[in-house]
Amino acid sequence: MHRVTLFAGHYGSGKTNLAVNWALMLKKTHERVVIADLDIVNPYFRTKDSAALLQAAGIEVVSPEFANSNVDLPALPAELYGVVQQRGRYAVMDIGGDDRGAVALGRYAPYILEENDFEMIFVANFMRPLTQTPEDALEVMREIETAGGIPFTAIANNTNLGRLTDINVVKEGAEKAERLSQLCGLPVIFTSAEKGLGGLYGVKNVFYIELQKKYYDII
Q: What is the pLDDT of residue 70?
């Protein structure tokens, strides 16, 4: 398990939901866990929406000063430097959508690359309009890498249709994720599925998650 885990992807891919669930999973085996919200682009669905849940679990939450408000461009707090510089805790980072959102990551990239103990996960949702094919997803991956300055190391299949998600949707996404893996040479670290969704026989490395309270608000 790497000390720093970053989740990035296209708008609406579900990366924030995965980041929250990953932090909660880490807390089960590690005493000190922090989750940082770098998503200054999406004003509707942020890590701060789950702040009470995370803090109750003993997880520190670092988010833009005006997250969960109507301010268009929140200021990134100085505490974010501590997330990457203080190496005595495990960190999860939620990166803004697409290349525009990943620009904020650039200022912290040197510290992350210097430590070289990170997992940069591309969150793929093949049900979103601009990432419906592995080739489209690969293009988004490259744009994010260029903007953020950190290479991806793995892929997470988070294909879903909100309330309409069923096993066929998840399995179809898993197949496309494997194709994306072949195109870019990176492994599929897991396929996510809501807890209670069964029938995923044959799907490798299923990561069962709980949805944030505002998950369906943007579907």
A: 43
The predicted model scores a pTM of 0.90
The answer regarding whether domain 4-218 maps to CATH 3.40.50.300 reads: yes
**Residue 47 has what pLDDT?**
65
Please state, in angstroms and rounded to a whole number, the distance separating the CA atoms of residues 105 and 133. Answer: 26
Give residue-wise pLDDT tens across range 129-160.
Answer: 999 999 999 999 999 999 999 999 999 999 99
Domain assignments of the chain as residue spans, ordered by start = 4-218
Where residue 10 falls (left for φ over 0; alpha for ψ -120 to 50; beta otherwise) is: beta
- Nearest Cα neighbor of 154 from 175, 127, 181, 114 is 181
Round the CA-based radius of gyration of the chain to a whole number and report it.
16
Helix (H/G/I), strand (E/B), else coil: 103: helix
Query: CA-to-CA distance for 12 and 50, rounded, in angstroms?
Result: 17
Distances (CA, A) of 187 to 125, 154, 205: 16, 5, 11
Q: Do residues 10 and 97 make contact, with C-beta atoms less than 8 angstroms apart? A: yes
For the beta sheet containing 188-194, the strands, ordered from the edge strand earlier in sequence to the opposite edge, are: 60-62, 33-38, 90-95, 4-9, 118-124, 154-157, 188-194, 206-209
Residue 109, CA atoms < 13 Å, CB-side half-sphere: 17
